[in-house]
């Protein structure tokens, strides 16, 4: 029989195997325990500060507190720009898991129109500081707030914030003077002080809002809050209150601004009124206007395109950027230039046959009155607006003297202290033409400048400022819009104020003023109908600026021209003559003669300021204007 196999266990062998395995297991456990203990020690000791900070950030966060924007008042304490409570939709990108999915959900919840979706997505990705909320929408409706509240659990990082929003009670008539605020864009974000503008979504874009942005904005504050895992605020741990912006009191008078806007209703143009002694701008209107409140929250594409494509250019601020030939309104200034340079005396006369000819030139430069005014001295030349007198004067002065003397009154320069976006206009010179066209200056161009035509371009604000300087007998005071910043009045002695204009004979002012008074009150004055019933002494000068040039033997006939090819109507005035308290410039585009279509508007402004309740209302002024339209005379 075969040998039986031994099947008994070998205890010694099994014990050796067990001991080896147990030793390996202990070794592995020891190593793993050592690694775990080492990792715990590293995290708890070496990186204690890092992870304690991260843990604290999950529980505590610092939020910016935007300041309240300063309010804007007129000179009488009437509120022009206020802050209204509203609700904004914001998003913190760092707290959003899937930005595209969240945005798509918001578009669905808010039921946004197709045109707004692209702008909505752009704003969500606008460059921000870490954990800085991006403004997606402003001025949410109650239904939008309700839908967002119901879906809040699906929208981490999205919040509805209560905030004050800029509002302009008289938006259309104040739009160009005040300007407006709007959302901070990417370019502005790169240049702004991030600490000062933390939590702020709006900034001044144009006008007073932009010029005084630093004073109106204020300083942002901070608050430290405790949040739960979802980011919801549980309690406030600390706070540094924001510093609100300064209150701004303007020189504007709302009643004067409203009157100017109503006078220009249905017309294109501008009215500017200034207090000569202080430079305070009482009214600065450009028509047509626009609703500036649309720009605060972000105007929709269709509305903006409508404003841009409007042939009347409502977005264009004619008061400070409109360039117009000054026409005959500059004749008093030219008369002073002739006196200063000794080219004329107050009693110098010419015989006007109805035209002027340069030596050895057959072309006739015609007076507006075809048969001429006969014997004309300086005062009568202003009263009847005789062109021939000023052709002669301009030729004798020359363009170099004309440029020098007119620059002294601010023509061709920015004249105001705090009017953002003001244009320089254009006071032509020999050097300017050479640089611009690489051509010499011709004598005929000097004659055109002598009656406020040709290359010469002024803004309504420039014309009002020059009129104020004239009323001050050469004393320069820069026009300004701010009366007080906070409780501090703006100083009268503003930097870069041009030097006063000095005359060798002070009586020359009186003689020029006499001519200007005869424009309104004299028997031959071009605007004598404007002086009917006048209760104070007023000096003024009408102007008619050609939009296109007439041929040598052509005569102007408004009825044969398209409306936008007709002459511009201008008028400048100040009153009372002995103690000027207001200076006004009026420009009405394509209206015709300034003595008819602009003079009555200037008279209405001076009446309103000097006579208060006794001044005629707008409807009365318009009735007089319509009556005189059929009797246009002079320029």
From TrEMBL:
It comes from Vreelandella andesensis. Catalyzes cross-linking of the peptidoglycan cell wall. This is Peptidoglycan D,D-transpeptidase MrdA. One of its GO terms (molecular function) is peptidoglycan L,D-transpeptidase activity. Pathway: Cell wall biogenesis; peptidoglycan biosynthesis. It is an enzyme of class 3 (hydrolase). The active site is at 328 (acyl-ester intermediate). Its EC number is 3.4.16.4. The gene is mrdA. Pfam families: PBP_dimer, Transpeptidase. The lineage of its organism: Bacteria, Pseudomonadati, Pseudomonadota, Gammaproteobacteria, Oceanospirillales. Its main location: membrane. It is found in: Cell inner membrane; Cell membrane; Membrane.
């Amino acid at each position: 029989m075969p040998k039986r196999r031994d099947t008994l266990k070998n205890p010694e062998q099994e014990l050796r195997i067990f001991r080896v395995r147990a030793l390996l297991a202990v070794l592995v456990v020891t190593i793993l325990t050592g690694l775990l203990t080492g990792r715990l020690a590293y995290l708890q000791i070496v990186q204690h500060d890092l992870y304690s900070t991260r843990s604290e950030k999950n529980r505590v966060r610092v939020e910016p507190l935007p300041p309240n924007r300063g309010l804007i008042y007129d000179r009488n304490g009437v509120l022009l720009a206020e802050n209204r409570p509203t609700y904004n939709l914001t998003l913190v990108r760092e707290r959003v898991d899937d930005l595209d999915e969240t945005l798509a959900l918001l578009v669905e919840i808010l039921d946004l129109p197709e045109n707004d979706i692209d702008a909505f997505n752009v704003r969500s990705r606008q460059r921000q500081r870490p954990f800085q909320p991006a403004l997606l929408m402003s001025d949410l409706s109650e239904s939008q707030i309700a839908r967002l509240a119901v879906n809040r659990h699906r929208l981490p990082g999205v919040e509805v914030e209560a905030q004050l929003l800029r509002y302009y009670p008289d938006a259309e008539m104040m739009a160009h003077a005040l300007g407006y605020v709007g959302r901070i864009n990417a370019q502005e974000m790169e240049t702004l002080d991030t600490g000062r503008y933390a939590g702020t979504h709006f900034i001044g874009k144009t006008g007073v809002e932009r010029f005084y942005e630093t004073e109106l904005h204020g300083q942002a504050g901070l608050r430290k809050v405790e949040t739960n895992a979802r980011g919801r605020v549980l309690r406030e741990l600390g706070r540094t209150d924001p510093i609100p912006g300064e209150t701004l009191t303007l020189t504007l008078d709302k009643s004067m601004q409203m009157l100017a806007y109503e006078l220009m209703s249905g017309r294109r143009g501008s009215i500017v009124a200034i207090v000569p002694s202080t430079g305070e701008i009482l009214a600065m209107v450009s028509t047509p206007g626009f609703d500036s409140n649309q720009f605060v929250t972000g105007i929709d594409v269709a509305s903006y395109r409508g404003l841009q494509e409007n042939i009347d250019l409502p977005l264009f601020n004619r008061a400070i950027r409109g360039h117009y030939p000054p026409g005959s309104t500059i004749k008093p200034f030219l008369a002073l230039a002739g006196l200063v340079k000794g080219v004329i005396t107050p009693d110098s006369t010419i015989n006007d046959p109805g035209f002027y000819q340069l030596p050895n030139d057959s072309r006739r430069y015609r007076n507006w009155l075809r048969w001429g005014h006969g014997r004309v001295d300086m005062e009568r030349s202003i009263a009847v607006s005789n062109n021939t007198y000023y052709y002669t004067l301009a030729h004798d002065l020359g363009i170099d003297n004309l440029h020098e003397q007119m620059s002294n009154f601010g023509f061709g320069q920015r004249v105001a202290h705090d009017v953002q976006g003001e244009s320089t206009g254009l006071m032509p010179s020999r050097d300017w033409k050479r640089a611009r066209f690489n051509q010499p200056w011709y004598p005929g161009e000097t004659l055109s400048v002598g009656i406020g035509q040709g290359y010469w371009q002024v803004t309504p604000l420039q014309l009002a400022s020059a009129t104020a300087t004239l009323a001050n007998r050469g004393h320069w005071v820069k026009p300004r819009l701010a009366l007080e910043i906070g409780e501090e009045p703006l100083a009268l002695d503003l930097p870069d104020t041009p030097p006063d204009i000095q005359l060798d004979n002070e009586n020359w002012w009186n003689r020029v003023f006499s001519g200007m008074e005869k424009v309104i009150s004299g028997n031959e004055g071009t605007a004598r109908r404007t002086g009917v019933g006048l209760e104070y002494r007023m000096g003024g000068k009408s102007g008619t600026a050609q939009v296109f040039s007439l041929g040598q033997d052509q005569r102007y006939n408004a009825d044969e021209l398209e409306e936008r090819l007709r002459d511009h109507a201008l008028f400048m005035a100040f009153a009372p003559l002995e103690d000027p308290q207001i200076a006004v410039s009026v420009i009405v585009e394509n209206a015709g003669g300034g003595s008819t279509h602009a003079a009555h508007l200037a008279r209405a402004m001076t009446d309103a300021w000097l006579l208060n309740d006794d001044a005629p209302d707008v409807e009365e002024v318009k009735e007089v204007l319509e009556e005189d339209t059929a009797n246009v005379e002079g320029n």
